[in-house]
């Protein structure tokens, strides 16, 4: 079996002046890391990767040892419905042929950096495919499910900590190590700068005045919200069992989480957290797990008391009273779909396009005194619209078909990991409409799918 350092039974004995036996030499060789170590490098080291500017790239880098491990195994299993995912990847690559084709309603002309953006996104698609197969092909003995759950639980704590940092030190930012060594022409690129320049928060004027939204340790406020919601089910799994300190840590972290969640001004996150809590409570309660009901009721009461007795209540109400982006989002979605259907309904355009003009001004574009005049590019503000615009109706159908196929395979499974995994998929489905998810959120979804698929396969083999 791969991942084993060598024979542990070698005696290592020497006979006089004779050369050491092969087993003795082998016994002195450094022990290779066990299976699953790339995940530990990614998640346990994530705060370091954020500070050094590698947080967006460590997932891609660790795909290399994962691929090598799969290669050594020879036979690689795939989940049912994987053919749809492979076809989606092929369709995604076909989009490269459309990168310099003008899209209806988009700004005409070719931008050379589209190739860089396309390659970056393609690398992410490759990476999330690799982690699905990597986790799914490792056995429970090689990579225990509990270990993966705890790694994702740790990421929830890191995300909460980053959110608190954004609330307490909203103006904190600094150049990363990667930013210092890269050429200025590259590090000042808008996309690259957002990925390698650590910031605790970003500012917005949603409420009619400047307010900070936490983003650390990610690049965008919506990424912070999506990651928090997708890591949460694994945090609940990891801390609903075990020693007393784990049970004490759970409510403490959830209460601390309330501050950055409200200060994120993220209505989509609020809705998904409510949906996820209701789903997991219902599923675990049906199993007869009393801890789920106690946690839900006790948690709701505690959160309401803290919420009502703090400034968070006023901020929450202000955000609900200022749905500034609803109309603009709806218009952008409509133009995105129409542009795709007119210009390239089958393959899409490979990447996003800047919109001609804006919904607020014929001249278009953000300008002093009218920050809201700027409109996000076609194919943004929701991964569903990105899929449609960049990969066409066929590509979007293949992507969604694979996700639906995997959800259908597990939604009745009473196992606790399957319940958490289906909660992740439901949250992801809602986020598809409003957030761009092609990085860490989709990576987490693929790990959840892999854990559920691996358990399903082992049950069949055992039965």
What radius of gyration results from the CA coordinates? 24 Å
Show unreliable segments: 1-19, 361-365, 367-372
Dominant shape: globular
Largest sheet: 2 strands, antiparallel
Number of strands: 2
Number of separate helices: 20
| Chain-averaged pLDDT | 84
How far apart the termini lie comes to 23 Å
Write out the strand line-up for the largest beta sheet, numbering strands in chain order: 1-2
How large is the share of residues in beta strands? under 5%
Task: Please give the share of residues in helix.
Answer: 55-70%
Q: Helix-strand pattern, N to C? A: HHHHHHHHHHHEEHHHHHHHHH
- Structural class call reads mainly alpha
Supply the number of structural domains.
1
Region (Disordered): 1-31
Protein name: Lipopolysaccharide biosynthesis protein
Transmembrane segments: 37-61, 82-103, 115-136, 148-169, 218-238, 245-262, 292-312, 384-404, 416-434
Biased composition (Low complexity): 1-18
Description:
The protein has 20 helices and two strands. The chain has helices spanning 22-27, 37-44, 46-52, 58-61, 63-73, 82-94, 113-137, 145-168, 177-181, 184-187, 190-196, 221-239, 244-263, 267-286, 290-308, 312-320, 326-343, 383-410, 416-431, 440-462, and strands at 201-204, 211-214. The chain is globular and about 60 Å long. It starts with 21 loop residues before the first helix and ends with a helix. The relative contact order is 0.13. Residues 1-19, 361-365 and 367-372 have low confidence and may be disordered. Keywords: Membrane, Transmembrane, Transmembrane helix.
């Amino acid at each position: 079996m791969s991942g084993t350092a060598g024979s542990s039974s070698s005696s290592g004995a020497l006979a006089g002046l004779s050369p050491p036996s092969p087993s003795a030499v082998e016994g002195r060789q450094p022990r290779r890391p066990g299976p699953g170590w790339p995940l530990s490098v990614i998640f346990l080291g994530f705060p370091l990767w954020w500070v050094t500017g590698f947080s967006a790239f460590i997932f891609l880098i660790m795909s290399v040892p994962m691929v090598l491990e799969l290669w050594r195994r020879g036979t690689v299993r795939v989940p049912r419905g994987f053919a749809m995912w492979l076809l989606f990847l092929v369709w995604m690559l076909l989009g490269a042929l459309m990168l310099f084709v003008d899209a209806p309603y988009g700004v005409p002309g070719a931008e050379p950096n589209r190739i860089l953006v396309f390659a970056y996104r393609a690398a992410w698609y490759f990476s999330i495919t690799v982690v699905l197969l990597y986790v799914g092909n490792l056995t429970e003995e090689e990579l225990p499910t509990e270990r993966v759950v705890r790694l994702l639980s740790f990421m929830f704590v890191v995300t909460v900590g980053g959110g608190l940092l954004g609330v307490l030190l909203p103006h904190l930012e600094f150049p990363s190590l990667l930013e210092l060594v890269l050429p200025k022409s590259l590090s000042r690129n808008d996309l690259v700068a957002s990925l390698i320049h650590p910031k605790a928060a970003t500012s917005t004027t949603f409420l009619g005045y400047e307010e900070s939204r936490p983003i650390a340790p990610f690049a965008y406020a919506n990424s912070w919200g999506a990651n928090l919601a997708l890591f949460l089910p694994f945090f609940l799994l990891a801390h609903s069992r075990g020693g007393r300190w784990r049970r004490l840590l759970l409510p403490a972290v959830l209460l601390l989480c309330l501050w950055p969640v409200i200060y994120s001004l993220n209505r989509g996150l609020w809705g998904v957290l409510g949906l996820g809590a209701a789903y997991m409570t219902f599923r675990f309660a049906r199993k007869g797990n009393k801890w789920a009901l106690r946690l839900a009721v006790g948690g709701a009461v505690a959160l309401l008391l803290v919420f009502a007795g703090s400034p968070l209540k006023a901020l929450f109400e202000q955000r609900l009273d200022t749905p500034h982006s609803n109309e603009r989002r709806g218009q952008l979605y409509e133009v995105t779909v129409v542009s795709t259907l007119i210009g390239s309904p089958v393959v899409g355009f490979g990447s996003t396009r800047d919109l001609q003009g804006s919904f607020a001004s014929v001249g278009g574009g953000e300008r002093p005194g009218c920050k809201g005049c700027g409109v996000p590019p076609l194919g943004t503000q929701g991964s569903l619209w990105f899929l449609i615009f960049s990969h066409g109706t066929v590509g979007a159908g293949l992507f969604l078909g694979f996700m639906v196929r995997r959800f259908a395979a597990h939604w009745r499974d009473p196992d606790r990991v399957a319940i958490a995994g289906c909660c992740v998929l439901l949250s992801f489905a809602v986020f598809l409409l409003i957030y761009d998810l092609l990085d860490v959120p989709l990576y987490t979804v693929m790990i959840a799918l892999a854990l559920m698929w691996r358990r399903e396969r082992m049950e069949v083999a055992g039965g």
